[in-house]
Specification:
10 helices
């Protein structure tokens, strides 16, 4: 396996996505980032995250979010004053639509962080001599690089799939289509796995650097610090698991996913996996029915005491 694609974020993205070719503006941005951006980013981190403002070339501020007038009104008057964002009764849908979009962004951010952490580890391993060989040439280390690169590419494909699906369904409003439910399941899977991968890759990258991995100068510890939040905000792992279960139970999104995967993976593997999921879902349903019965009986049990 060649690690060449790991060295630049854009070549990594191109190598993992079938239909992605970097536009010229993105290539220019990457060149700027390598020449100047990286230095600014390092300096900002060492200064302890100072108050940062960004401006475009004409001096206009570009780091502020443009909120709608309804949002400002709500901030001013408070949630309870009767100012509604959108239609009454639709609040939960609005929140979930926003959350699902930000989970896709989180997935791409997680993959980007893991790619950077791995590229730094690679650069270190290509220069560090241990026991008469470059670190990257030690068989155990080489094997870990191969395995982690494979996982990183898989996470990138999953994150990109969630983006493609979001692109298709983001304008849908309730009642949502099956395609939307498929998107929801893929977004939960992607948020969960990519955030976990980012943390694990950043931790491993520190280990590859050995003792130097704990020093700020080598950046490796920064990736772990930054990766930790990816698994918490936009809903921690438990939330992703519970919401994914809900969309499978109520909307049968797993069947849509298996339909989507048919032809891409061996049929027998897909059938085995689907049967396992169905078994778990039935078990959960039975457990809930049992629990409902107990909850109904609970007041009578108290009376009997
Ligand atoms: C730096 C930072 C920035 C943030 N920015 C924003 C922002 O801009 N906008 C915004 O709206 N929010 C923001 N958040 C909030 C963030 O989304 C929440 O912190 C996050 O979703 C977790 O919710 P919580 O803190 O209430 O944890 P809790 O809900 O108290 O969860 C605590 C733990 O319990 C687990 N848990 C909860 N329920 C269950 C259950 N039923 N079963 C099993 N386990 C469960 C959780 O997974 C978690 O591990 C931000 C948070 C941080 C740390």
């Amino acid at each position: 396996m060649s690690f060449q694609d790991l060295e630049s974020p854009l070549s990594f993205l191109e190598s993992t996505q079938i239909n992605f070719r970097s536009p010229q503006w993105l290539k220019e941005y990457e060149a700027w980032w390598q020449a100047e951006g990286q230095g600014i980013s390092d300096a900002v981190d060492r200064a302890g995250t100072p108050w940062l403002r960004m401006f475009d070339l004409s001096g206009k501020r570009v780091d502020q979010i443009l909120y709608s007038p309804e949002y400002w009104r709500m901030l001013k008057h408070g949630y309870r004053s009767g100012w509604l964002l959108g239609q009454s009764g639709n609040g939960i849908y609005l929140i979930l639509e926003v959350l699902n979009a930000s989970r896709v962004a989180n997935s791409l951010g997680s993959v980007a962080l893991a790619q950077r952490a791995m590229a730094d580890a690679l650069s270190f391993a290509r220069n560090r001599m241990v026991f008469g060989k470059l670190l990257i040439e030690q068989p155990l280390m080489r094997r870990q690089f191969d395995e982690r690169f494979r996982q990183l590419r898989a996470a990138a494909r999953l994150a990109w799939k969630s983006l493609e699906l979001l692109n298709e369904v983001w304008q849908q409003r309730p009642p949502y289509s099956d395609r939307y439910h498929l998107f929801r399941l893929v977004a939960h899977l992607s948020k969960y796995w990519s955030a976990e991968l980012a943390v694990q890759t950043a931790k491993w990258s520190m280990e590859v650097h050995g003792g130097l991995g704990t020093l700020q100068e080598f950046r490796a510890e920064r990736w772990l610090r930054e990766a930790m939040i990816l698994a918490i905000w936009e809903g921690p792992s438990h939330r992703q698991i519970l919401d994914a279960l809900e969309v499978m139970e109520r909307k049968h999104a797993h069947k849509l996913l298996f339909q989507h995967l048919s032809g891409l993976a061996p049929t027998s593997d897909l059938e085995t996996m689907q049967a396992q999921i169905e078994r778990h879902l039935t078990r959960a349903k039975k457990w809930k029915q049992e629990r409902k019965r107990w909850l109904r009986a609970w007041p009578y049990l108290l009376l009997m005491r």
